[in-house]
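Objective 1b of the project was to move from sequence-level analysis to a structural picture of ligand recognition. The entry below was assembled by the postdoctoral researcher (A.K.) and checked by the PI before modelling. It contains the amino acid sequence of the target and the SMILES of the bound compound, pyridoxal-5'-phosphate.
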Amino acid sequence: MLSERARALKPSPTLAITAKEKALKAQGLDIAGFGAGEPDFDTPAHIKEAAIKAINDNFTRYTPASGIDSLKDAIIEKFKRDNNLSFKREEVIISCGGKHALFNLFEAIFQKGDEVLIPVPFWVSYPPMVELTGANPVLVETYEEEDYQVTGNMLKKYINRNTKGIILNYPSNPAGSIFYRENLEAIGKLAVEHNLYIISDEIYEKLTYDDYRHVSIASLDSAFKERTIICHGVSKTYAMTGWRIGFAAGPADVVKAMGNIQSQSTSNPTSISQMAALAALNGPQDSIGVMVKEFQKRRDFLVAGLRSISGVTCYNPKGTFYVFPNFNCVLGKRYKDKAISSSTVWTEVLLEDFHTAVVPGIEFGKEGYIRLSFATSMEVIQKGLERIKKAVGKLK
Ligand SMILES: *Cc1c(COP(=O)(O)O)cnc(C)c1O
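Corresponding predicted holo structure:
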């Protein structure tokens, strides 16, 4: 018999939809795919070359479990350069992806009976990962009309003696929203007052648009930094999702515990990928600007297209490569003999009848919404928009 934990766990819905999209494409169907949770750019050449060199240099053995010093130093330099934050080596850990850093972190700080505040809409993996530790996710609703802000007042009513931490993700997957500085200040103060950990998932830091510049909560006050663990990685910034390198920085005792967990589970992240990540962080950064410029063009086109559909509203993302339009207008309608009773049914109709793959909002905790990734070509975006418009027009 499987463990209770394993029985309670469902696979990542976003990975499942991407798999379905790929399977339908393999059958020869022309699917407009908006499921992708990864950049559609190639890893820059100098990064790939560093990995090839690592192989040829026989840098192919175990490394220290928490990662190599040269990469830790590059990460320390990154935090200094981008966020004006100082970390020591013992405050930094390299993991097998940002997701793995978060997993180790939750294992290190959460346990049965703890409550963890998670703003909604949330990244799909936070609640299941929190639950795996025995802790309880406490969902804090945020609203499109309020730019998905979390204020101190909103949080206060959820905080009690069991509250152990809050998970912040900005720019956020799925909405592409950020937190205003004054709200980060208020959240930080509450965390200090109630002795909470702040988990700050900043993996989309570099993918921001218009005049928005990312500010880490840890950089606002040394009292915030003392209780913040920043989770980050190279996947999104350098189009390196398959390389599986993420990192975290925070209090030395937490980082040490994360390292112990890692040393008893995966051991070190891949030696070759660490050398590639080192080249990514220390090498030329211009590939990011090229990617952001292209993403911004696609975002503008996609948001305008979605907003032109009658009844649909769409928050204009300040970062990431996702949009999270509000399709509440389709709920309660029918397509042929099918009642559109949920965002899940709506995405099934879009995929099966209109060959357009999107992710239901309910997977991120928001019914009535869908998530579309614009990490795909303009042609696919154009085609997909036409299909979605056509689908909405066919509803009764
Ligand atoms: C993609 C993603 C991650 C981690 O990705 P890795 O490939 O594991 O580094 C973490 N948080 C959010 C919100 C993400 O979208």
